[in-house]
Amino acid sequence: MILLLPMFGGVFAYVVDAPPLYLLAKAWPVLTAPLALFAAWRLNPPWQPLLLAACAWLLGVTPFVSVTQLGNDAFGALASTAKIWSLTGALGAAASLWLIRPTPRDLTWAVVVLAAITFGFLIGAWLFAPDALFQQGIEDTKVFLSDVERGRRINAPMMFGILTLFLINRSFWQRPKVWKALLILGGLVAMVVMYKQRAQIGGTVVGLGLGAMLSLRRWQGPAMMATAAVVIAAAVPVVLWLGQDAVDSLGGSLSMRQIEAEHALAFLNDQPWRWIVGVGSATRVGDVTLGDIVGTPFFFPSDLGWLGVVFEYGVIGAGLMLALHLLAIRMAWEAAQRGQVVGAAVLDYAIFLLVVSPVVSVVLSPGELATVLALSWWLVRTPPAPSGAASGSAP
């Protein structure tokens, strides 16, 4: 599972810094296609019909729309679907889980080991990576980044690091220990100081807060209402005090997103039915780029959250992806009710994916959603923990 989970999660899908892993991640959906076919034929998980409908639209219809709307060539249109391929991994991951049959404790240890590797790399790269790595172009690195607002930062794939923070958080509220609180705090500090991805850090804090409230059992309702009241009460004066300074503090990334959003809305409004079916996508290997079509030097739908999804795949595609995320939360909720801490952590991560989706496009790394679907399905099939036990708890 330590080897398989990162591949199905698409952890290396953008890590061009490690060419072998990058190429393997791109080829993984094709290599595991027999597993996906096996799962569709034998296992038939409850989310399979919706998943197949989403894949049919995103992988089948959208390339055709891209050819007709953007003037894209067939090869470029098909190549533009590569980022969605990992969504099909939900079936392959389900088949792998069925064949290997890991226990909740096995999955817990696999996730914890992957988190140790993740945070170990994050801290090690921050301390020892030479300055030359941060001066590379975006074609050469997706990990060692630098910009004016945030300075140097390590854009490490954090899926299993964040998932483990949720797991330790759930375990803490079952059996409080000081070292668990210190691990969570240390992980957050490392993300703030070294990772610096604002949406993911904010989503992690929200996930930790929700996990804490959901662990309080009969105090869930009062805790949620009290938290909401505190957040609202704190947000009003902060917004009034910061005013325009809050916008300015976000730097060029917000300005760029505003420009891209304006161009996207203008292009969609030019032919309103584009809102329904989208306009498709393009890649650098095709004859055209989205920047050429929209009329701006830089245009990346992945910067625009759900607006970017609607731009590429229409309201139909966005609706299918939203339905998959909501189904993942429902399935993970069922897994969490079986008394397994790892199931509760998967629920928190499913919520995390939806929380960050207004900023982090749901089609940018759909392997994470696919993995959540597969893990939730398997954990629901796993016998519930004995009364009073904490099967699959964090070590």
UniProtKB/TrEMBL annotation:
Enumerate the transmembrane spans. Answer: 23-43, 50-70, 82-100, 107-129, 154-173, 178-195, 201-216, 223-243, 304-329, 341-364
Q: What are the protein's UniProt keywords?
A: Membrane, Transmembrane, Transmembrane helix
Domain of life from the UniProt record: Bacteria
Could you tell me what this protein is called? O-antigen ligase domain-containing protein
